[in-house]
Write a structure and sequence with these properties.
single chain, alpha/beta, ten-stranded mixed β-sheet
Length: 472
């Protein structure tokens, strides 16, 4: 659910801090033409007891509106600035001076996210991440803020090579030496944490024939036993998080905390987006909040009370992609709730999953969990009848680039093959790369007509074009 090159978004790191439980957060995206002003949003946050917020950039109006509110803030250095931050220490000094020092401490900035889901960034910014983090940290040291402001970088579950069973979790081999080991060393040395974006919805949507809805929504179910260690999992969320913990442990970094920087469930979707509904969104988010606030870690890390960020605060009517992308909100733009869920321990006293059904959801049990990845990491498509492809139109550079960014970013198309030196990098043209990304997304979405639009930048063909490289 990254918002690469599209918008300013906010993440709420925590709605509350508890002694015995974890913390819940909500992502506040701003890709909408009808959203309330930052001033009104701050009033909404305070009315809900929200005392921490993460901003997806450093918008002055937003940071000023948070001044003096007591709300702790996390700001973001966008992916498109990673190159400059990695190459010039002077840029990092200037960025921290303009976007952090200028507001701190009246705006209580307490952490910085350097990039977001960099490994799926179509602009191939992975190589800039570690140098950028180190340069930004040097800037914090210069201004004597390194002890009060932490740095991290959110990763998607696509960074995992294996995710099932959880105990076999491992990172993609090509990322371990150049990225994960130096990043974990940095996080350990600075006392920071790893940010992870995890979406059980995508796993369920793609594997609803083998994953029970109850298992995905934290409802009563028989559970799934990890064959390697005998641990029984009663929800997909814990299984996904433990896959990351296992991957960290395999590299001997099991002392580093983990924060779930994004998770959520859409209240509406296209016909082929299985499970997207108000009922399921309310169940997932409500039950997740209950699970986090009442404490307790995961089977692999039972003492790790988690900080979890819900996606998202508002429905955002200008987000591209399938219908679900515009329907993750907990609130409508008029600030009315899309559905009722608890936001505090006091609210939790009266909370009940009203949509819970006896025998749970679809009544099935998780029979098998093949490795599940967040939508778009697997180009395969079992439905081969009536072959069709999605290709780019000649609509101009800006529109093609916007569509490419979405497909490889939030759309979770597998764009590794169009990275420099990869199998489909040539022909090295925007139209060819966009066609690959559009088609990857289109196939992932089951060839739904709505999945081949990209704001008018794509169309469906029934004969595979010989001028483009496709993996499907």
């Amino acid at each position: 659910m990254a918002t690469l090159f599209y918008s300013i978004s906010f993440f709420l790191l925590a709605l509350f801090s508890l002694t015995d439980g974890g913390s819940i957060g909500v992502n506040y995206g701003r890709i909408g033409g009808d959203l309330p002003s930052a001033f009104k949003v701050v009033k909404l946050l305070k009315s809900q007891g929200i005392d921490r917020v993460r901003v997806y950039d450093t918008d002055p109006a937003v940071l000023k509106s948070l001044s003096g509110t007591g709300i702790k803030v996390t700001v973001n250095l966008p992916n498109e600035l990673l190159y400059a931050a990695s190459r010039k220490q002077s840029f990092a000094y200037g960025w921290i001076r303009r976007n952090v020092v200028a507001y701190y401490p009246h705006t209580e900035i307490n952490s910085i996210a350097v990039g977001n889901e960099v490994f799926v960034d179509p602009k191939n910014t992975t190589g800039f991440l570690i140098p950028a983090i180190k340069n930004i940290h040097k800037a914090l040291v210069k201004y004597k803020l390194d002890s009060v402001i932490k740095l991290s970088s959110p990763i998607a579950l696509s960074a995992l090579q294996n995710s099932y069973p959880s105990s076999s979790g491992s990172f993609r081999p090509e990322l371990i030496e150049p990225v994960f080991k130096p990043m974990f060393e940095f996080l350990r040395e600075t006392g920071s944490f790893l940010m992870v974006n995890a979406y059980p919805f995508f796993a369920y949507e793609s594997n609803s024939d083998v994953i029970s809805l109850d298992y995905a929504l934290f409802r009563e179910n028989p559970g799934v036993v990890d064959p390697n260690n005998g641990f029984r999992y009663f929800n997909l969320f814990d299984a996904q998080i433990d896959a990351v913990f296992a991957a960290m442990t395999a590299l001997k970094y099991d002392d580093i905390p983990l924060v779930v920087s994004e998770t959520g469930w859409p209240s509406k979707g296209d016909d082929n987006e299985i499970g997207a509904s108000v009922e399921n969104a309310a169940a997932y988010n409500g039950n997740l909040i209950k699970r986090v606030l009442t404490g307790g870690g995961t089977p692999l890390r039972p003492k790790a009370n988690l900080t979890v960020f819900l996606f998202a605060l508002f429905n955002e009517n200008k987000k591209p992609g399938p219908v679900s992308e515009r329907n993750y909100g907990l609130f409508y733009p008029n600030m009315e709730k899309v559905y009722n869920i608890p936001f505090t321990m006091e609210d939790l006293k009266n909370f009940k999953d009203e949509s819970s059904r006896n025998g749970g959801g679809d009544g099935s049990v998780v029979r098998d969990l093949t490795p599940v990845k967040r939508g778009g990491n697997d180009n395969s498509n079992s439905n081969r009848s009536g072959q069709s492809w999605c290709v780019a139109k000649d609509v101009g550079k800006d529109k093609l680039q916007s569509g490419l960014d979405y497909a490889c970013g939030e759309g979770r198309a597998d764009c590794r093959a169009i990275q420099p030196g990869a199998t489909c990098y040539d022909p090295d043209t925007l139209e060819a790369h966009a066609s690959f990304a559009f088609n990857s997304y289109y196939q992932k979405m089951g060839r739904a007509a709505s999945a081949c639009d990209f704001d008018g930048a794509a169309y469906v063909v029934t004969a595979q074009p010989s001028t483009y490289c496709f993996n499907v």
